[in-house]
Amino acid sequence: MTEVKSPEVAAPPAQVPDELTPGRSRWHGLRPYAPLAALVVAAIVPYSTVNLPGVFEGPLNSPGTLQLLAICLVFGGLAAGYDLLFGRTGMLSFGHALYFAAGVYGTDVLVTRGGLPLWQAALLTITGGTVLAALLGAVALRTVGIAFAMVTLAFAQVGAILVARDFGGLTGGEEGLPLDVSGLPSALVGVANTVNLYWLALAYLALVVFVVHRVSGSPTGRVLAGLRDDERRIGVLGLDPYRFKLVAFTLAGGLATAGGVVYCLIVGGASPHVTSSELTLSLLVMVVLGGPGTRWGPVLGGVLYMYLDHRLTAFGTSDAVNSLPAFLSHPLSQPLFVLGTVFILAVYFFPGGLASLRTRLHPLLTARRRR
Amino acid sequence: MTEPVLSVENLSVRIAGLHILQGVSFEVASTGVTVLLGRNGVGKTTTLRAVVGLTPRNGEVRGTVRMGARSLLARPTHRLVRDGLGYVPEDRCVFAGLTVAENLRLAERRGTTPAYDKVFALFPELDRRGRQRAGSLSGGQQQMLAIGRVLLNDNRLLLIDEPTKGLAPKVVTEVAEVLERVAESVPVLLVEQNLAVVRRLAKDAVVLSAGQVAWTGNAQELLLETALTKSLLGVGAEVKA
Amino acid sequence: MSTVILLTLTGLGLAALYFLVASGLSLVFGLADVLNFAHGLFLGVGAYATWWAAGNLPGAGSGGFGFVVAVAFGVLAGALVAVLVELVLIRPLYSRTIEQVLVTVGLSLAGVALLQATWGADARPFPRPAWTREVTSILGANVPNAGLLLIIAAVLVLGGLLAFLRFTRYGLIIRAGVENREMVTALGIDVRKAFTLVFAIGGAAAALAGALGGVYFGTVSPGQGGSLLIFAFIVVVIGGMGSVVGSAYAAVAVGLLQQFVNYYGTSGLGDLCVVGLLAVVLLLRPQGLAGKVATA
After folding, report:
1. In the β-sheet with B212-218, what is the strand arrangement from edge to edge?
2. Of B51, B180, C21, C277, which sits 20 to 30 A from A339 (CA to CA)?
3. CB contact under 8 A, B95 and C179
């Protein structure tokens, strides 16, 4: 059956809690502490000089590796925030990249063009992004289902146009806008300080996971889950679906904006790529690959997706791939081809994503143990 | 008594986690009208839709449904219909944007001659209004169209869901007359709330209550027992109509 | 005056492009409830197949009758890919709307990447007959012939589609299915055959848009479909999902609005106005201009 078809399950990166480990009985009592342990492990990664050939290009504490890990962590958090909409409330938004881009460009423009100190820029940006999400959500949520998806897509397109056309010369258009680092706190500037950005990204991820966890466990979260399963039933209870959905949309938008602020610092600027609809589609891929509506699935999906997206490029130009015949090596050198294909297979054979692996593998494992 | 045309055994339907039907069993005789009764929300429509294979995607159907020797569940709706299971849904569901003639034409099938003369003899109105949009017909006319659409082909059994719902009293009588004539040639499983219509048409009755069969037997006998009718169907006013 | 005529005709050319993409999207969505993100891929396939045929296919070329053969080859390729997508990827997920959208999303990512892997990310010059590079003088305005070609093609496709929907049995099934798919099956019709057909039609129209868009822009690149697709989505929503006529009206409105505002306002402002139009239409008429009816 489908359980065995799990081609894309590479070893999860070290900082992700390894929920998939067999031998659950002893593990069980320790499970509540697992996230904490994972956080500690992730936090001390920069002190490790371990070299993982093939997995990363340099040792773990090299700036290049830390930057890649930081990007992965930000997207883990971004995917977890997006899951608040898709996996937990059942809203198919195709415009989530807009709020992320608002965070990236908001910070960049306020710091570089406005000359504001970072903390003011970040505060203004996050407030602005949240308000933007509330306003656009208020309009978009008048529609449901597929129409909602299209409207959010169209709104995000406005963001892409605004950035690309460079109104008022603020965004740098197609070229993007490098961040002016002269006014930034020195701890966040320079290759040697990449480790601080890594910790910042980790803190962002932890914050998003914490918020999403708290929200989904609250009465509001149960209403959201009810909306996902059957919106009419919530209406019958006398609750207004619109208001609950707007709360979720605004919160997710705010979290995405915060992620944009962090991302802007990590990559040191903004490029129009972050406004593209492709980015939202990628978020959807991350969440579905990881397992929508689960606590760690989207995080895992986001981290793994960004990791693969970066590493597959290197893999595509490696000798192993180049020695293949052209009809194989060319597609394999396109990360999106590989990820898109894996995604399609996942939708068919893996509806619960990576997070469902444990429950799917469980019967197999126990069967083997009994033997 | 002859073989039943339809036998339903232990039919259970769960939709979005809710048990709508729980182990429903009954038979539909090969002649006349069998009426499916019960209060609102007991699962009458769900039963018909499960028989014809139209349970929604988030639903789960268990049990057996047989038409003759053939098992119906798990076969696609269009095959069941081509095998002679005619279905007239609740609220008529005519295609409002299509003309009357187009609505009828849609029911034509390759390899068989559509029985237009039969349908137009029953409903001369449909012939006259061929070019009119179905959405602009009155409720009664739409019901005629929905029934006529099914009668273009030969059927072994008709499933008709609340054909008199929302119609004016005079039109209700017209629809009942038509159904009486239809039932002369083909067995009907009818969901109907109007007990006057039931009294006029039904031979057998199956009463559902909370997703289970509460009573089966002769329909006329059921109607005579006022107390029973009242407890099962909760009706008073309609029975006098 | 001549500026207005020029803008009107170039706006209509743009509208023609939108219509060719949106009509198929709209029918696919109206009938099968599939929001097809892979539609841009069909456009890309059409463009690249035409480009390839003009250079490699015997009998095809970049001028005269050879060009017609090349375009026909592109359209056929688009239709074929669309049918394959429907049969292999969409059909097994019948009525699981969200999964279907996800699959088309994956397909759009992977498909564009595949085009890029095969023919490179850079735009390539598109083969086109010499006369399409020239202009025709209409009431004092010099209108590019490629734009006129697009308009003529879109009008022919519109007419053909309407006749198909109006006069054929499958057209009848599609119109009925857009209204109430379940009831079509309850009349004994296998509606899935109509799905495949609608995908084929949509794929062919999108491929034609790809080929003629290549002529219009003069180049072909893997990402071309994606940017057009978003405006096509907007056209579909404004026009009402499932309505070919609605798509046509909405395409004209969007194309003209974009062209005029981009010319008289700042460049890019027209694109924003289009999204504004979408918001206004949705607030006033959430079901779009035509509602969910396949009008013919």
Report:
1. B85-88, B157-161, B188-191, B33-37, B202-209, B212-218
2. C21
3. yes
